[in-house]
Amino acid sequence: MTTAASARRSEFESSIQVFEPHRASLPPVRPYLREFWRRRRFAYELSRTTQKAANFDSPIGSVWLVLNPLLLAFVYFLLIEVISGGAKRPAGWSSFLHIVIGLFTWTLVASCMSVGATSVTAGGKLILNQSFPRALLPFSSVITSLMNYWPTIPVYLVMYGLGLVLLPHVPPGQGSTGLVGPTWALLWHPVLVALLVITGYGLAMIFSTMTVYFRDTTKFLSYVLRIWLYLSPVLYPVSAMVDKYEKVWPPLGKIMIYGNPLGPVLGVMNDIWIEGVSPSPALLAGAILWAAFLLLFGGWFFVSRERDFAVRL
Amino acid sequence: MPSDSDLAVKVEDLWIRYRTSYEANQTLKGAVLKLGKRSERRKKSVRVVEAVKDVSFDVHNGTVLGIVGANGAGKSTLMRAVAGILPPTEGRITVNGRVSTLLALGVGFNAMLSGRENIMLGCLAAGLEMDEIQDKYDQITEFADLGDFIDLPMRTYSSGMYGRLAFAVSVHMDPDILLIDEALSAGDAAFKEKSFSKMRELCEQARTILIVSHALGTIQELCTDAIWMHKGELVRQGTPEQITEDYLRFLKVGESALTLEDV
Fold first, then answer.
1. B108 and A123 in contact by Cβ < 8 A?
2. Domain span at residue B195?
């Protein structure tokens, strides 16, 4: 061996890898996270180029990404306010705004789940040919979802601005009667987006793993998402949902909000945008706990099975 | 006898089994429907494939190891296991160094993306930094010599161009251990010559190469060591000349050669 080669060899002394049988258990966590972090750019570029290949980076493509939840919001608004006669809430525009911010938020997580669900099966070629932390694939889907989420914010701000011109102003905390102007509470928004992304990543890992084992998961997922949407405080504010379910059984109101992984975070979104108040501590705590739980559980669920993926694809 | 520290790859008592299902893909619906009636039908629809059976061998640094064998011998499975893609069912694989793979499917190329983007993705997945990739990029494009095609989507490539790009990417990853599975057949004669000299260059730097090929000429020309696998088992390890000769005789005579030789 030449001296150069032996020098190189010693440099790679630490790179000895041992592959041994495993049961459903985690690989060494620290090296895994290190490799994951080292390749974070890969997740970003994979997301960017996949979007490009699907033509979603064209102006028309991104218009659709915004228009879709917006039109959906309009449909739900019609359903709730017009057809079911939502006379209880006088400020139609305010409740439309509530539905829009709710749906934009919801779409971020739903997209993490639906794009993420196919991330592993779609990356099959990559998985069969290269060894890298597979958790980068659902992570890349989360980046895609986040990139699609950004353009919805200015759209919402325009609608919010229109509301400010048209609607009577009301003090914070009475968002159901009119429009509360912007308050400092909006500074919580980035924190909430972070929580949503973490929650979405956890869910993406869970559903992508399930898709490897059961290829029809994505079909079920579209129904799951639809029902989940109706059970979440997106179309109705938290208070209205709690009132409704408490009539059935008093504890049910809280269960329906806190038992839903997205219930608390959607509630907080409503707090800051519609009511103009700081997040209620209970809802915020619920949102943080759900995000942490889903990240850890989803991470364990995915990573402990990922070495099995190459066999299953 | 060289010491263990000189080993690039050590495979010990390796078994790889996987369960295949006769159903194309398992579905959630199927799983729910089957809940009631577990035992019999389930057993029937699952078969355990023993792709690699009790294989052990060592590969020293700077070796070019050729792997020959009929279809279904477990060669590709073995390569994936060495690359860390498939986990062993039993036994142990120790790999000393950075592995670069050029497996049968080509690198994880997305046909909708340009060659340039695919190079970047391949390098990033292998763990290279962005600035390293900038350096590599020119070397790779020059080696693959695709001209303007490098900026066109890969769906416009011929299979030869595909193979050239895949080969160029994998040899420029600075691998300590390069795994090549049936990929050399794609290029034309000129590219083949170029790829051979590149591989010799890698060997001179004491890097290690594992080649799976059905082209026995390639094995004889390039390799310094060879193994022959049959139905998951390692039949014989030896010099490339000896192994290809035995393997050819086996192909002519059929299965009986195995038993005759063993007596």
1. yes
2. 64-86+100-259
